[in-house]
C-alpha cells in the first residue's frame, strides 16, 4: 500500500460551511429516525384529517370552515413537534452519547453548533409545511392571503420556533436522555390535547383564558389569526417572545454541553 | 511567533480535584514536538483528566497548561483546528453511518485528508455504511482515531487508543502512530499497557495518584541493555534481614528490592557471577529457591519499584 501523507495542514473550514455541514447532518439524522418522522409529518396529517372529519359530526362552534380553522393549528403543532420534542430528544441523546463532547474538540464552535441546530429545524419545518399544506389544499383549504398573512405566519413560525427550541434545550440540558425522551413526548401530547394548538382557545370555554398564554396556545392563535383573518396577532406574538426569553435564560443558566 | 518556539505541551503545577478526591496533584511535564509521548499509569492515575485539560475541556484549578504555546481555554478557537482528539469511547450519533460521521468531521476542516484513503488505512472499508451503534468496539475505536486524524492536525491526543482492539488492529495502530511522528505530527497518548508505551513512545511520563513519578525514554527508564533483573522466589518466607545480607554478598553495584515475603528483585549487571552469588547466598541462608528468573528490566518493574504496586490489576 502506498504511504499515507500525514503532513500537518491544520485549519478549520469557514464558519458558514461548518454550519451548513452541521445543519444538513442533523436534519438528515432527524428524518432518518422513524419515530421522529412520525412525529414530524405523519401525526400532524392524521390530526388534520381526523379533526376535519370529526368536526362534521360534533358541533364545535367554529368561526369558519373546519379545514380553514384546523390547518393553521396543525402547522403550529408541526412546529412544536420539531422545535420542542425532536430537538429536546436529539440533544438529550447527543449529550449522552458524547457527540457534543466530540464536536467540542473539532473546529466547530458553540455558535456554529447552535446555528447548525437552527438550520436543521428550519429545513425540517419547511418540509413539514409543504407536506401539511399540500394535504390541506387537497382537502379544500383556502388560506387568507396578503401581506398581513405572510408577515403573521413568518413571525409566528420564527418566534414559535425560538420559544419551543429554548424550552426544549432547557429540558434536554437538565434531565437525563431517557427522562428527556419521556418528558418531551408527554408535554407534546398534553399540549396537543389541551394546549389550544389545534383547537382554538375559545373551544376550551373559560379555561381558554389560561391556555392562550401557553406557548402552544399563543403559537396556534398567531397562526390562525394570520391564515384565517390575514392579520398579525401582536399579543400572541409577544407571548411567544416572552416564552423565548424565559426559555433562553433558563437554558443559559442550566445547560451543560456534556 | 511565540507559539512556534513553544513545546507541543507544557503542563506546570497542574492541580485538579473532584470534590475531595485529588485527581491531578502538582503535575508538571513537557511534550516536545515531533515525538510520541506516552503518559503511562494505572486506571485512575489522572491521565484522562490531564489530557482533557490539554484539550480545553477542563479549566486548570491550579497551575498552567499550554498547548503549542496557547491556553486551551482562552485560545480555544485558535487551538482547536490544530489538534486532533480521540476520546475514550463513543462520540458519535447512534444512527450515523461510519463513513457519514467521518465525512462530517472532515467537512469541519479546511484541508481534510481524503476520507476514503484514511478509512481504507484504518480498515473501516467494510463497515462504512454500518450505523455507529452496530460497530464493534474495535471499529468504534478506529473510527475515533480516523476522526482525530482527518483534519491533518499538528498534535493528536489519543486516550487509550488500542483499548478493545484485536492484536492485528493494535499493530496497525502502532505502525500508523509511528508514521504520524515521522511526518512531524506530535502524538500524545495515554495508556496503561506498558508494552504499548515501551514499543511506541520516544518519551514516557509515568504518573500515579496524579503525580509524575518518572520520566524518560524507554531505554533510560529501563536503564539500557546492561542492566537486567533476577527475580528470586523462594518456598518459605525469607529470614529477617535477608535483603541486607544479600546486598552485602553481591556488592555495591547491585540493588536488592524485597517484593514480598517470598520474592525479591535483584537489579544490576546480570552476569554469571551475580547469578552464582545469588545461588551461593541461598545455600548459605538455607533457603530453597522455587524459581530464579533472569530478565531485562521492564517498565512493569520500574513501576513496581516506584510504587510497590502492579501497573495492571
From TrEMBL, chain A:
<keyword id="KW-0472">Membrane</keyword>
<keyword id="KW-0046">Antibiotic resistance</keyword>
<feature type="transmembrane region" description="Helical">
    <location>
        <begin position="150"/>
        <end position="174"/>
    </location>
</feature>
<dbReference type="InterPro" id="IPR013525">
    <property type="entry name" value="ABC2_TM"/>
</dbReference>
<dbReference type="InterPro" id="IPR051784">
    <property type="entry name" value="Nod_factor_ABC_transporter"/>
</dbReference>
<feature type="transmembrane region" description="Helical">
    <location>
        <begin position="75"/>
        <end position="93"/>
    </location>
</feature>
<feature type="transmembrane region" description="Helical">
    <location>
        <begin position="37"/>
        <end position="55"/>
    </location>
</feature>
<protein>
    <submittedName>
        <fullName>ABC transporter permease</fullName>
    </submittedName>
</protein>
<feature type="domain" description="ABC-2 type transporter transmembrane">
    <location>
        <begin position="18"/>
        <end position="202"/>
    </location>
</feature>
<feature type="transmembrane region" description="Helical">
    <location>
        <begin position="227"/>
        <end position="252"/>
    </location>
</feature>
<keyword id="KW-1133">Transmembrane helix</keyword>
<keyword id="KW-0812">Transmembrane</keyword>
<dbReference type="Pfam" id="PF01061">
    <property type="entry name" value="ABC2_membrane"/>
</dbReference>
<dbReference type="InterPro" id="IPR000412">
    <property type="entry name" value="ABC_2_transport"/>
</dbReference>
<feature type="transmembrane region" description="Helical">
    <location>
        <begin position="114"/>
        <end position="138"/>
    </location>
</feature>
<feature type="transmembrane region" description="Helical">
    <location>
        <begin position="186"/>
        <end position="207"/>
    </location>
</feature>
